[in-house]
Design brief:
alpha/beta, Rossmann fold, six-stranded mixed sheet, 5 helices
């Protein structure tokens, strides 16, 4: 069964335009610390072949880079999804279902409310994703192209 990690970007700095807002100092600290904790608690993230799908915004890109440096996994392929900025569940599912079957794990780095809604659509669980929060799911499917509403089971929820 494929594993899906859904991560909200870290706390961002105020400002505009929204797309260009960077992480705050606290957001960078939280994601670095959380990345180290996640690598320790989820050893599969250090060894599995992983695809990471990220919104292209500045704060999600920074979150992605900090997470990658913590995981120290050279088998992570990063894809910045052009339509991932403020994307809803259907956009994320469209990209998730295109993943190659040999990829056992996917990480999504995005924005709220879209990623909270993605968790709800996939699992039925309503989890409010604060900045830097992450949910681990197993998908009750054999291959990524089978993902649809109700196929997820939340295994863990993490906060920075």
């Amino acid at each position: 069964m494929p594993k899906l990690f859904i991560l909200r970007h870290g706390e961002s700095s105020p400002g505009s335009p929204d797309f260009e807002r960077p992480l705050s100092e606290q957001g960078r600290f939280d994601i670095k610390r959380f990345g180290n904790k996640l690598a320790e608690l989820e050893p599969e993230l250090a060894s599995n072949k992983i695809t990471l799908l990220s919104s292209p915004s500045k704060r999600t890109s920074e979150t992605t880079q900090l997470l990658l440096s913590s995981l120290n996994n050279l088998n992570i392929s990063v894809k910045h999804i052009e339509d991932g900025y403020l994307a809803g569940p259907s956009t994320w599912i469209k990209h998730i279902e295109k993943l190659a079957s040999e990829i056992p794990t996917c990480i999504v780095v995005g924005h709220n409310p879209g990623i909270s809604d993605l968790i709800t659509v996939l699992s039925g669980s309503q989890i409010t994703m604060t900045p830097g929060a992450c949910v681990k799911m197993e998908l009750l499917i054999n291959d990524w192209d089978e993902v649809f509403e109700g196929t997820g089971n939340v295994l863990s929820a993490y906060r920075p």
